[in-house]
Each structure stands twice: as C-alpha cells, then as structure tokens.
Amino acid sequence: MKKVLYKILIPAMLLGSVSCESFLDEENVSGLTATGYYSTAEGIESLVNSLYTPMRFWYGKENGIALTETGTDIFTRGNGMENPPVALYNSDLSAVNVPINFYWTRFYAALNATNTAIERIPESPLPEAQKAIRLGEARFLRAFYLWHIVETWGGVHLTTQEQIGVSTTANRTPVETFYQQIFEDLEFAMENLPVTSSQYGRVTKPAAEAFAARMHLYRGNYAEASRLAKKVISDYNFSLVPSYASLWTANSRNSEVVWNVNFTADLILNREFDGLTNETSDDILLREGGNNSHLFFLMTYDQLPGMQRDIRYGRPFARFMPTAHLLDLFDESKDARWDATFQTVWYTNKPGTYTVTDTKGDPRQVTFAAGDTAIYATKYVVSDARKNAKPYTIIDRSRTYNVAANDAPRVRDRYMSLKKFLDPARQTISQQQGQRDAYVIRLAEMYLIVAEAEMMAGDIGVAVEHINVVRRRAALPGKAAEMEVTADQLNIDFILDERAREFAGEQQRWFDLKRTNKLIERVRAFNPDAAPNIQPFHRVRPIPQAQLDAVSNKGEFTQNEGYN
C-alpha cells in the first residue's frame, strides 16, 4: 500500500523536530500550520503516528546498538566500529560525542512530540473512544522515551508540557520523578489501549503491561513486575515459537512478538527523515533507514580464500565482535541458541585455487569447489598441526583472542560472527536497508522477568519454573531435561548469563547490567578492552556540550559527574 509522508515541525528545547509516517495512507498537506492541522482528525492521527518514528533511529541502528551492546561483558569493538569511545570508556567518551548528541536530540524531540499529542488529543475532533486509545499510545510512547532518557543520562531535564519555541533553561529532575511519570503514563496506557490492533506495530494493552513489567523490574518492584509479566504470559494469545532459530529464520511477525518496531520491504518507506527538512539525511548515523542490524556483527569473511560477499552471509561491516566471555556462556552440546546465534562455518561461494600461508609462514596452494568448507570458526584453541592439515581457514580462539592475556582481542576482523540478524530477503549484496522488524519485547522476556522478580522476592520455585520454560525451548532435540536448572544454580549472575544467551544483540545488555549494579563488575571481569577505563560514573552518558552551552542556568544544569 502506497504511503505519503507528511512532515511535522515541532520546535523543542535545542532540538529540531520529528517526521511522521502513518500505518496506512496519509496525504501530504501543505499550507497549514501545525496548530491548524492538529485541530483536524487527520492531523491528530498523523501526529500520533509520528510518535513511532523515533524508534527507527534507535532500533537496528549502528549507534543505538553500540550504546546498548558494546562496552558490556558480551560485545566489544570490531575493526570497523565508528564510535569506539562508547565501547572503551576512554577519554574520548565526552560531551562532544556525536552519536550521544544525536540521540539526546532525537529522544527530546520524541518527548516533545508526545507531550504535544497528549495536550492536543482531548480537544481534537476524534471520537471519544478513539481519543482514549490515541492518548494511551501517546502516553505509552512518552514513558518509553522517558525511560531511554533517564537510563542513558540519569536525572536530566523532564517536562510534560508541549514546548513551542526555544527554552533557555533546563531542570535537573531526580530519577525517581522520571519513573513516577513513567508509571503514571503506563497506568493510563494499560487502562485505555485495546488488546489487539488491526494496524500492525501500534502499541496494545499487553505491550503496555509487558513494558510496565520491565519498568517495575528496573525499580525493584518485584511483586508487580512478576504479576504483570505473568498476565502477559497467561491472558493473551502469545506463545514461544517452537525453536529459537525460527525467531531469526522465519517471519519476524510471530506468536512470540509482544511489540516490534516495524520496518517494511518497501525501501522508499524505510527511508528516515532528519527532522529538519523533507530530504533524507546523509548522516552516517542513519544508514539510509531500515533495520540495519544485519550489517554490524559480521566479520570480513569475504577477504578470505574461497569466499566473496553474498546475500546469504551478509554484508560485513565488522563493527561489533563478541567477547570470549559471550562465547563461553553457551554450552553448544545442548543449547540450540549457539548455532542459531553464531556463524561457525562458511561454505565456498568463490571456487578456485588460492595461495595461502600456513602457521609457520610457508606458502601452499589450496583449491576450493563450490560448497566446500572455506572457513571454520571455533571458540576453542586449535593446534597449528590441525590448522595446517586443513585446506580451509580456521579461526580459533587463539587467532582472535590472546588466551594468555585475559582473552583480550588480538584481531578485530576475524571472529565468531553473530548471524541471528541476517536478512536474506535483501535485494542486492550491497543493500544496507533491512526489512525485518526489530524485536522490542518478546514473550521470552516475560518468563525471565518472572524468574528474576520471584528469585529476588524469595520464591525460587516459581523462578526456576519460569526460567526453565525458556531453557527448554532453547534445548537441542533430546536435551530439554539437561537444559533445566535447579534452585541452587539460580542467582542474579545466572539470570544475566541467561539473558545474554537469549537476547544478545537485541539492545538490552547495557541497561541490564546497569540496573542490576553489575556493569562495572562484569565489564572489568569479562571485557579486556573496556576494563582498564570503566569507572562508576560511566553508569550514565555525558550530556552533550551543545546543550550545556545553550542553557542560561549553567550553574544549575551541569555536566554529569566524571565527564569533561
């Protein structure tokens, strides 16, 4: 179905504006002011639809992933990473970091847009029942963006009023006040949103309950987190897909999805707008729209004998690589998530004879036919004798990591690639825009929220019951019983390990480590790149210098502690 994008300009504090894209048809309306347009049913619908767009700047985008997955215990920088400071916590992680400034701008623009919608919907000509639903969406999304703001930057500026024009003052609002507003908005959303929507991607009542469960877990409200997560599990028609691999190899719209960021196969409609003009931004942060997760976790396999870039193995940007710790979290003898998550074998797609060098530096010739093994990757150390006896390239632990130095990366272009985000439906090998939806909340998370909340509340039996549902689904055939855990195995570190196995790369890890007070501990223990640099103040990001320079109350609105 053809869509026409309508540009909405909403000035905000030091920010630009947001663009919108409806779920169905929109008309491009010209000659109307925002106030006049929002007084129409069509205008207010377009405004609400626009509130979803900022998620596309975050999910499936390089710097959104970098801020949530690297600099943790499970991912570090590959050789192609364009914003290493967020992975390393070095002195370059400062107030002038461009991606951090980008997201500050986008999230505050999103907040202002939600505030605008919440103020204007009650006076709009929408039917009363429709007003309640659209208000529920707007308040859910405000809570969603407030969560990103407060967890990224801490107790910074909070407003629930529409901002027209430029404000020169900013407030410092306590984290608890942010969460009070988040819970108020989510309560309204849960009371007013429908259980389902005919327009895929709109937030619904169970999505609001699921996100509220996550928020209550963050604040240590374990009884409420468990209650809401159990409700999502039992009261609706969600179910875990039969195998973990099918989450990534089949349609991303499936029974496990509680809420997705929806992309599209129409590449024109996946293009994102920079919030300032009607032209697509050339900003490298946007990467031409779409879900681009498929690009970033792949090593440069196409530089090795027998291989060339193809759609099957993806376009390798080599931005992010796993730590050895992430690899060690999987028991591949019983956990099917290992093979579903990582690429361990590449088969020849460029037959021919090649001159290669063995581990002693001596040249030899190898010949590959189509379909032969060209590359084999393993988390174990392989002897030089075995490497030299095989025609294919072996990327073992000792080639990627320094096993004598806490598994610090030795190279950053040859590693175990995360394949779960590959998008074989792309039309060409160079296409960056991916069309797969991005998971925001899956049903598996609800089981793990119950497990963690009940464990923290002292009911280990219920905790074990729920975590084992996820682990049985993850089991290789015939290994379900071996995958089950017992009460004595369960603690917060095990749950974090399980969340890493289940959600690696899905933009939750940094937040998970922060909320459990494990960020510093686990980065120092398992991420040799970041371990020397990370400090307690890194639990929040620096406030952009442009923001600090622009406010008039500089003595009140100051930089987060520890940053220059």
TrEMBL record:
The UniProt record lists the SusD-like N-terminal domain at: 23-217
Q: What sequence ranges are listed for the domain RagB/SusD?
A: 312-563
Per the record's keyword annotation, is Signal included, yes or no? yes
UniProt-listed InterPro entries: SusD-like_N, SusD_RagB_dom, TPR-like_helical_dom_sf
Q: Does the keyword DNA damage apply?
A: no
The record's family statement is: Belongs to the SusD family.
Its recorded name reads RagB/SusD family nutrient uptake outer membrane protein
